[in-house]
Amino acid sequence: MNNVIKRSGLTIAIASAVLSAGLSHASSHREAPFITEVPKVDGTDFYMFRSYESGREGFVTLIANYLPLQDAYGGPNYFDLDEDAIYEIHVDNDGDAVEDLTFRFELQDVLNDIQLPVGPEGATEMVSVPLKNIGDATDNANVQLRQEYSVKVVTGDRNTGTVQTATNVSTGTDTFAKPLDNIGAKSFADYAAYANQHVFGVDIPGCNTNGRVFVGQRKEAFAVNLGEIFDLVNTNPLGARNGEGPGDLADKNVTSFALEVPTDCLTGSAVNSNGQPVIGAWTTASVRQARVLNPAPSANGKGATVEGGAYTQVSRLGMPLVNEVVIGLKDKNRFNASEPKDDGQFLTYVTHPTLPELLEVLFPVEAPNNFPRNDLVTAFLTGVPGVNMPVDVTASEMLRLTPAIDPTPLDSQSDLGVLGGDNAGFPNGRRPYDDTVDIALRVAMGVLADAADAPDGGLAYTDGVQLAADPSTLPADYEVFPYLATPIAGSPND
User: Fold this and answer.
1) Please, which residues have CB within 8 angstroms of residue 460's CB and are 6 or more apart in sequence?
2) What is the DSSP string of 290-316?
3) What residues does 148 pair with on adjacent strands?
4) Whole-angstrom distance, CA of residue 216 vs CA of residue 256
């Protein structure tokens, strides 16, 4: 217990900014009862940060991850997205808790029925093959089923606003190709090169400069031991930060919607007290209200289900793991269906968080006693004054970013973000390298509170897992768009 954070060493601005981490604990895998039934629309992580790739400082990158806990060998269908769903990233740039811009991704299956001649000469039958591909998977002629997507930009309310379609700069069409998942080394001689061919320039309506977009499988970046955390924190919360190995997600993949947008296309009237622009964002997924099982699916007609009705939101993610460890079990489905403007209904979960009380029961530590936790209310629902809180903000939960703060190159980033002296990191947005678990544990237990209110608040809490102790050791993928590593192959080279 001798690793104590020196509270007096933090500036007031830094100390205040870290408060917004106190309500999150990790990412958001399988966080609500209903979402476990529809994993293709389960949002797992949401990142938003000023781009730190060299030469891209004038852009903001938004990454929404979906479809958790992918085992690379999960064939033969692997992990296609839901073509009957819509995946959206919402941006609030005037501080009123209502989206001003929405980037809407819609998927479309492309079926190429590959058949092989089977039987003796003169009496062969053409029979459809059961596999995703029958040869080099970089050649679409060898692929049975792949996906394409479109990107629509909605200005104003996502349901009633003006809808325009983004254009693929390289083709001049409104269609973008999604790469196949990393089936294995025999299907892909160089998967990284293949995936990079699916990073497209995108002409975004209303922007004078083109952005970039990528939708596809990546290696999971979130560092956490989910098994130990949810087994009543079955780990040493005061041990070494990297004492538990690479984490439960180190051998998993995930599917990412990555979009890089010129900063001035995202900012609006919202500014902090220093006059710097502030943007808030969150991601959602929605499915049709009605789903009827088809008792006789047909390859040439209706599929396994018939979908209909209005789109209904079933997943929501802004700050990491709010629904997973802050919202009570009975309200988790309700939170996933809610909008930021209505977050006052969840206020008690913020003013009286249960996580510190659970840790007090499980370990010989004392939870903060400054109830109601108004420090957390300020950060969780409004942003931090002077940092990422818009003037006249409407209280609501979302990830907030002040893009005027210069980005930090990867090899200089602190995975403790603002708490580690790196103001370009969490909770000023969130980058893949930021260790939100350790940050959250420390803040939730009162690292920023008065010692009288949080006698154990200065301890260096950790889940014992880091993405990397030194960011310079991360793969080069983390330095460039889409900022996540090449996914693990289902079958490695011999």
Assistant:
1) 3, 4, 5, 238, 241, 442
2) EEEE-SS--TTS--SEEEEEEEEEEEE
3) 108, 177
4) 5
**pLDDT digits over 373-410, tens only?**
876 777 677 877 888 989 999 989 899 999 999 999 99
User: Rounded to an integer, what distance in angstroms lies between the CA atom of residue 133 and that of residue 143?
Assistant: 4
> Is it the case that residue 448 has pLDDT exceeding 80?
no
**Distance in angstroms (rounded) separating the CA atoms of residues 168 and 210:** 10
For tokens 């403007």, name the residue: 341
Higher pLDDT, 347 or 66: 66
Q: Tokens 């940092």 correspond to what residue?
A: 387
The two three-digit tokens of residue 124, written as one number: 């062969």
Taking each helix axis from N to C end, the angle separating 436-444 and 355-362, rounded to the nearest 10 degrees, works out to 80
Closest CA to 218 of 494, 434, 493, 489: 489
HSE (CB half, 13 Å, CA atoms) of 298?
A: 4
**Ramachandran quadrant class, 429 (left: phi over 0; alpha: psi -120 to 50; beta: rest):** left
Ranked by mean pLDDT, the top range of 238-247, 254-263, 457-466 is 254-263
Q: pLDDT value at position 299?
A: 67
Say which residues have a Cβ less than 8 Å from residue 159's Cβ, sequence separation at least 6: none
**Host H or E run for residue 260:** strand 253-262
Is the model more confident about 228 or about 416?
416
Indicate the residue type of 376: L
DSSP-based three-state secondary structure for 484: coil
Q: Is 423 left (phi over 0), alpha (psi -120 to 50) or beta?
A: alpha
229's enclosing H/E stretch is helix 226-230
- The structure tokens listed for 422 are 């790196």
Give the up-direction half-sphere exposure of residue 405: CA atoms within 13 A in the CB hemisphere: 26
Place of tokens 């029979």: 127
112: tokens are 């190429």
User: To the nearest whole percent, how much of the chain has pLDDT over 70?
Assistant: 91
